[in-house]
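Design a sequence for this backbone.
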C-alpha cells in the first residue's frame, strides 16, 4: 500500500458544538467515537471518502483555557457540492465569514472561508471542472 494522509486531528473546546458544525454545516459524517484517558475523540469523514477529520476534547487539566492556534496550522479544506450554500448555512448559524465564496480564475473552483467554533480557518471548496492542463 502506498502512502496517503489518513486523518488530521484538531483540539476543540466544545466537542458537541464542533461535531454539529462539521456534520450539520460542512456535511461530514460521524464515523465513530473514542474515549481514552484525558481525551474524548470524534472521527468524521465525507460520504465520498477522502481523509478523515478527528476532533479531540482534552480534559481541562490537560489543556486549560482557549486553544492556542500558534502558527503551525493555516487552514482546513472542506470539499462541498455547493460552496455558496455551505457558506450561507455557516453564516446563518452565526459562524464568522472571512470571505464569501467566489470563482477563482487560477483554478476551476469556487472558494469561501469561515471560522469554525474554535476559530480554525475553514476553506470551503466547490470544484468546477478539470484543472488547467488536465
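Sequence:
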Amino acid at each position: 500500500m502506498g502512502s496517503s494522509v489518513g486523518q488530521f486531528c484538531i483540539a476543540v473546546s466544545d466537542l458537541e458544538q464542533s461535531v454539529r458544525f462539521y456534520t450539520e454545516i460542512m456535511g461530514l459524517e460521524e464515523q465513530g467515537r473514542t474515549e481514552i484517558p484525558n481525551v474524548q475523540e470524534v472521527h468524521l469523514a465525507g460520504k465520498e471518502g477522502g481523509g478523515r477529520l478527528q476532533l479531540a476534547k482534552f480534559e481541562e487539566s490537560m489543556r486549560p483555557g482557549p486553544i492556542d492556534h500558534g502558527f503551525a496550522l493555516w487552514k482546513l479544506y472542506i470539499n462541498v457540492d455547493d460552496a455558496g450554500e455551505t457558506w450561507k448555512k455557516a453564516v446563518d448559524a452565526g459562524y464568522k465569514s472571512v470571505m464569501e465564496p467566489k470563482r477563482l480564475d487560477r483554478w476551476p473552483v469556487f472558494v469561501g472561508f469561515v471560522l469554525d467554533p474554535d476559530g480554525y480557518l475553514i476553506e470551503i471548496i466547490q470544484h468546477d471542472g478539470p484543472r488547467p492542463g488536465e
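The helical segments are 15-25, 83-92.
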